[in-house]
Amino acid sequence: MPLLTATPILAFLDTDETVAFYSKFGFDCNASWKGYIMCERDSISIHLWQCDDPSIPKNTGCYVYVNEIEALYKECEDLNIVHPNGKLEQKPWGLKQFSILDNSGNIIHFGQRPEQN
Asked: With contact defined as beta carbons under 8 Å apart, do 82 and 97 qualify?
């Protein structure tokens, strides 16, 4: 049986700020459970759990594979969420990649495989 998908579970600090961040970024968010948020966009889900320690999200992240990376990069630039050291570039491992920081400090890397360029 093949594996189908994975959902990262990241830490967050403030519910309202986190829902606002991910909603602005095009995700539909469900924060119906105290201390837990589920966000979805296209075929990607990101779950988040609430914590009080800001060092946790600042040391956490995930990698998302995408198509049309240039369009997504422009969207993120327009939202001013591209990581200062995460500009779009071709990486030595063959992927085009850029990175963002969410409102809590989680880093999210977006990459496009060469066959999808």
From this structure: no
pLDDT tens, position by position, 86-106: 999 999 999 999 999 999 999
For the chain, the structural domain boundaries read 9-52+60-116
- Is the pTM value of this prediction over 0.70? yes
Residue 2, φ and ψ in degrees, nearest 5? -75, 150
> Around Cβ 5, how many Cβ atoms within 10 Å?
7
Question: Rounded CA gap, 5 and 43, in Å?
Answer: 9
Say which CATH architecture domain 9-52+60-116 belongs to.
Roll (3.10)
Tokens of 26: 């095009």
**Separation between Cα atoms, residue 25 and residue 46, nearest integer Å:** 12
- The Cα 7–Cα 39 span in angstroms is 10
Tens digit of pLDDT for each residue in 19-38?
999 999 999 999 999 999 99
Residue 115 DSSP class: G
